[in-house]
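User: Hi! I'm working on a homework problem where we have to compare a predicted structure to a textbook description. Could you give me the structure for the chain below?
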Amino acid sequence: LADLENEAIKPEPIAEGFLYRGTSNMLVGNPGEGKSTIALDIALSLSCRHPIFNSFPVLNEQKVYFLALEGSYYELIERIRMMRTKIPFNANNFCVDSTEILDAQSPRQVDLLIERIGNWHTPDWIFIDPIYMAVRGGLSKDEPASAFVQFCERLKRRFDCSLFFTHHPVKQSYTRDGDAIVKDDDFYGSIWLKAHVNVSWRLAYPTKKYLPVLRNKKSRGLSVLEEIPLEFDVESYT
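Assistant: Happy to help. Predicted structure tokens:
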């Protein structure tokens, strides 16, 4: 009853209109279109209270653990080196990590990862890029998708953190004439994965110019923008 009377019990914004504490956030985009770069941009900004996309003020500095499961380490370091020219990230608040073996269906591997994270710090945010590398068997099937959801919930309970992960859509399909079929929802994965996410964004390129747009596909009880147009700076990779 006391909680019912307490109007202060509501989602805590970390970046008003975009990110909230204790949530699971998903960024969906086609391979090679920039979702990993966008995720890294967000993660670095959180670590130093830099406005995300120069538009969303961050409430306070966040401890960020970034688990890169795809791509080479030297490419990741090169991106961060370029981004640092515009985002003065706090290295004490940021950990970039990678592992060759991770299966969310293996309790042993999950235990080792949680221990690995805890040995660094207690993160406010955990980024997983991309999530298909964190489970074997395909996220379209209920069993591996359910295991991944339980893995995410365990991370949130253990560290009292928020999650942000990248994912890919279903494969593009075409008509007999070769025209791309536009789907209203091209989400790939089991319904359990879709239900778990609090906020999901779809990376799109609505014009011929290389100007990405984040379109909100789900925002369960949270106040987020419907669309976020972005401008990409090639020199700083931000």
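For your comparison, note the following. The longest helix spans residues 142-159. The mean pLDDT is 90. Good luck with the assignment!
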